[in-house]
Amino acid sequence: MNDWVIEANNLTKVYKMGKDVEVHALCGLSMKIERGEVVAIMGPSGSGKSTLMNIIGCLDNPTSGEYLLDGQRVSTLKGDQLATIRNRKVGFVFQSFNLLPRASALTNVELPLRYTAGVRNRRQRALAALEAVGLSDRVHHRPNELSGGQQQRVAIARSLVNEPAILLADEPTGNLDTRSGKEIIDLLLTLNRDSGTTLIIVTHAPDVAEKAQRIIRIRDGVVESSEQ
């Protein structure tokens, strides 16, 4: 029996542009991702890929359809409920790192724990996350004292500190040189193997996508293909 961490059933998303114009970003999209799987999601601009990522990451709700994250139906949640699920279940890694420029690596990684009720030993957990990404000797460095690859490692540590059900990496190598980008992908794959965290990578880069166990291609708001 499959253990699905992502279940999307017949998702639609319609954006209203003024009174008379509707943009159909998702058009009945369905997909499933197993717990611990490494999946790359690809698609051209305007395919609905970004909209799908916002729904998977609990940043937005579909217009219709059902979305379950880690067995919990979240497609109808609003406001604070959605934010709580997002903080507990999803780790984000962005192309632009999104670190606090005046805060240390340790403070940046610890930040999500400050918004999670009942968490103890925040500092110890943040230190452990930095050690896991190979930055135990950079905990007190600010972003401007780190290379691009090191900043992305801090962002990955921050995304993992809450032990999320999924790690959602949106073009994680986009602002990195080839060598640093390869190191980051290798690190994400190692963390997936060691922790079992489901890894979803949104990318335009074929060399990144081919590292995944499966490639899901999105076009015109639906899944065009799913390839092992």
Would you summarize the structure shown here?
With 228 residues, this protein is an alpha/beta fold.
Can you tell me about this structure?
This protein has 228 residues and is of the alpha/beta class. It has a single domain (4-227), classed as 3-Layer(aba) Sandwich (Rossmann fold). Helices cover 31% and strands 30% of the residues. It has seven helices and ten strands. It has helices spanning 49-56, 79-89, 105-110, 122-132, 148-160, 178-195, 206-209, and strands at residues 4-17, 21-34, 38-42, 64-69, 72-73, 90-94, 166-170, 198-202, 214-219, 222-227. The protein has a six-stranded mixed beta sheet with strand order 6-7-8-3-9-10. It has a four-stranded antiparallel beta sheet with strand order 2-1-4-5, with helices on one face. β4 (64-69) and β5 (72-73) form a beta hairpin. α4 (122-132) crosses α5 and α5 (148-160) runs parallel beside α6. The two termini are 19 Å apart. The mean pLDDT is 92.
